[in-house]
Fold:
Amino acid sequence: MRVAVTGAGGRLGRALVAALQDAPFTGLSGPIPWDRAAFDLDAPESIHALLDRDWPEAVIHTAAWTDVDGCAREPQTARRRNAEAVHVLAEATAARDIDLVHISTNEVFDGRRTDGRGYTPEDRTNPINAYGSAKLEGEIVASAAYRGRKAQLGIVRTAWLYGPPGHDFPTKILAAAERARIAGEPLQVVGDEFGSPTFTQDVADAVVELLGSGEVGGFHHVVNEGVASRAAWARELFRQAGLDLAIVEVPASMWSRASTPPAWGVLEPTPLPGGERLRSWPEALADYLPTLLRQRDAAGAGR
Structure:
């Protein structure tokens, strides 16, 4: 199967390209990586030439503008990149009977539920910020493009992604911990925002399984098992890294932001074709930790 990946230079795109290289169904040629130079969200009409040149049988669309604060400041740009570009892509792939996997987000939900349950694909969407609104519109236009078509559309929602090349929550928290240690102060971390910390490698493996099974169509919530606040995530990271630093939980309202994230951004994982779910988030974090610590040490050596 010839599989193309948009946003191949991004966090999830890189993980998907690596996972597809090991997949038995991609053949000797492996995946087709489309980076920003190949498929620019600000010039999505280029997709027609790409499809006619490479003729993939499936496209995984990871490219998106994920700067949620930037989306809040520039909602029209968010809509152009996260909805209008999806429309162009989905119309082009559907017309050629190419399967499409569209990566979406937990932020299509408002995060106001209080029953302790994660959001399922059957729950009502109601985004509260520009990023979530644009991503939801992307889901809607993609679904419309594939209505009545032979090819399949899979919408994969995920949340709180982290992984190489860094610049993610674990990386930033370790850097903040070092600054707090030097200052002799506890670290303040948000304690009233909850989600599903999710390792990009695990999402990539799950998407590859969906493609390989032929059951990619429909909505899929792909997150590591378990729930954590930002503060709990930081505490588990410090425990695994052997860091002894006090954490003080503070409300999200303490930090001034352009965007308002869902307070309860938890997704209920949907089973994969084999019936299993992803491993727990602390297990996944432990796999990432050696890479994370090497990055931290290299950054420290470079100062």
Observations:
- The mean pLDDT is 95.
- The chain has two domains: 3-161+197-221, 166-194+226-265+280-301.
- The longest strand covers residues 99-105.
- The radius of gyration is 19 Å.
